[in-house]
Predict the structure.
Amino acid sequence: MTLVVIGPVTRDLIVIGDEKSQRIGGATYFQSFVFEEFHNDYLAIVNCSDEKLVDEFPSSDKVKVIKKDDTHFFINNYPFEDDRDTREQFSNFANIPILPSDLDGILPSEIDGFVLNPLNRYDFPGETIEYLKSFDVPIFASVQGFLRLPDVQANENYTIKLSKFDELEDILSGVDVIFLDEKEKNIIGTEYDVGEMVITNGSHGSRILSDKEIKIDAVPCVNLVDTTGCGDTYMAAYVSQKLLFKPPEIAGNFASKIASEKIENYGPYNFKS
């Protein structure tokens, strides 16, 4: 059975202090490297306009492209080189929704679960969420993208602001595990009909809310190199353990370890090291 990981692939500009670099990004991209190592039976489905972006994935034969007329673009600005918990984000807010008709015919016949990685509120309309729930398999969802709105500026890219919206409760209802950070948790609260809520807090670790609260310490990294995609890596590592029926504490500690290993290397998780 196949784990289906869905969400945009992006073109990113990373700014750390005075240094700039261009690269491929998006949660589904970063997570594919983790699943390549820890849950090899997966399929990544991405929405973008440039099909060549899938060449950057660890196994391009495990990626399907929903061709759209735009591609997400993000600027991740870390103004303080020694503080990677502080980040400013800008985006073009591509309006390229993934619709049930896009997924019909490309999903595998047997599915382990869905991992949903919206990067803005347009990516997964309510009708798509309901369609995926109809498969009656575990759903793991990142909350961040559902909260993102453009804070309009006088330039082509918009500052990202986060805001709760009325439909969020219906979207998340029945989802097995949701992932968010402490800032996002403060925006939406904790009263949702979900199996588990995994709340990350950068170098301060994470906590898991299920039938009780479980605190997970961050695993210190020896050499801080690249934090972009760290939360996505944590999420994928956590999901890989849940699919093995591991309890939340074991899954969280494993995810913290893998996220720390990713931080010590440039780019996505280096599964070959």
About this structure: The longest helix spans residues 248-263.
